[in-house]
Write a structure and sequence with these properties.
The complex is a heterodimer of chains A (167) and B (456). With 167 residues, chain A is mostly helical. Chain A is 57% helix and 0% strand. The radius of gyration of chain A is 26 Å and the shape is elongated. Classes of the chains: A mainly alpha (167), B alpha/beta (456).
Amino acid sequence: MKINQIAIVAAALLFSVISCKKETIDDKVFQVDNVNLYSSASSKLKEKTESQWIAVVYTNIFQQALSASDIYRAGQCITSIGDKELAREVIISNFMNSTAPAPAIPSNADMRNDIDKFVKEAYERFLIRRPTEGEKQYFRNEITNDPLRSAEIVYFSFALSNEYLFY
Amino acid sequence: MKRREFLKKATLTTAGAFVAPYILPSGRLFAPTGSQIAPHVVLVMYAGGIRNQETVDQMYLTQSQYSWNPDPSINVPGNIMPNMLAGAAPASKVVYGTGPGGNNPIAPILSTPLQSQGVLFKEVNAVAAGHYGGSIALLQGNTNLSQPLLDRPKTPTIFEFLRKHGGYKATDTWFLGNSLGNSVPLYNHSDDENYGAKYGANMFIPGVTFGSQGDKFLKDAKVYHPQNELSPMYKMKYFLDNSYESLTQNNVLDVVGNTEAEKAQIKAFMKNMFLKKQAGQVLLPPSAGAGADAKAVGYACEVMKEFTPALTVIKIDGPDACHADFTAYLRAIHQSDHAVGFLWDYIQTQIPAMAGNTIMIATPDCGRNLNPNPILDTENNFRAYDHSDANTRRVFTLMAGATIGNNPDKATAPLSSSSPLNTDAAITVGHILGIEGDMLASGYLHGNSQSLIRKL
């Protein structure tokens, strides 16, 4: 083989190695900003709108997003009822009764196997902060002392809390 | 202790026990100073802008169309509100009824019109030329109408007066609205810092609460065991709220303040309404079809049957079609009259706790113009009317029931300074329910406010 031919083949091989490749989604790294937990409840000063509350509570309970049109319609339900707290309670009850999708709530067994972990995760999921020692102790006692206390009921209380109305 | 000293202390202690203030659940120190005239009031915010010409003046087409089009066939006076007003129906050119062309008037529900059972104030001066200002005036009892749309009333509503000064509980006061539009869902309380949400009324906008939105997000609410589930849930919620209490003081939260027992009753009521709706058992005024006004009235009947409130306020506004369709306006007035008749009949025949001891007040938010706008409706070429001129201030108030009795009409000249104001609706309700003195002393009412009962 002549030197020229060898050079051409080598160049072709080199080109094929370093040439452009089709970009795929796997090449991308989508960076999500870290969410800083609140240091305490007192950091939250802005009240959520009805739509914001609906969007967040749905996501927290189901671990998936609600469509924009349904956020709007659920918000209308709250607007249509005079006692907003009662409206929110009925909506949460409605979510808890859903089968498709089903609420993403830890089982009662999981909750009781590691109550501290469950409480910490509930605070982080709903209130975006860690519980104080006093709060951990309170929920530890509540769950330990009441065999009927379910994870669903605990989650319900977080979703209905006043702190959950603020961010 | 000497006998004289003992007697002195005992006397002082006994006297003190009688004089010491009693703290009511509402937080007030004393029971209301006035006595009730009746235990229940229903205030119908009757229709979205209606002219006295087509209502109490019973001029039908004569002063609305014939004035602008001298066609003898439309020179027809007559009464199109047979449940509320006494008077003969139009003799011809009937277009306000049902069926093709609206030729079939709806048969009256009441054998005796409310005017003949109570009293009609034929000329009442509306303080605002718009629906929002007019509605707010009825609830606030004043002319503080500078607040924009989509904002709450700035001074206390009649609901808040009743709850703060009368000790009425949340489920004693209800507002039933026909729409989420404009500011309607904000009428149940003001944002006055001394009153506000915690003294507000319960409210439904039935077309939404029990409409398709409610079907999706409210209907299937899980029913929790009150002791084993709900009570612990509330307990944990209250614990969580405690840690946030300092930031939610000063009336920040929009919480009407139903007790847990009241909440349970409302939730059970809602559940029952969805079941009744599914079974087609919620009675709506049949003439008004399934429209928003019909739902407001129909579900108001259900609310009254369940809660027997001290005050129920109902907002209907079908006649606002008059901006562009005069024929639709006439039909809506006729249907609204039928809805009011249905409401009154339901109270008297289906709610024993309210039959015979309820006073109903019906008054419009505002009137409409003397002169038409250029829009002709397609069905009859009738001219339409907006609301902005002096004629818009001409409205009426009809009151009947309980101790009112039949009185001669109160007829003053149009826009006379001696005519009542439509803001008098609020103090009239307060007078009937025993808080007239508290309301007058509050400093919030229009300076000329006077209960219509005192004008009888």
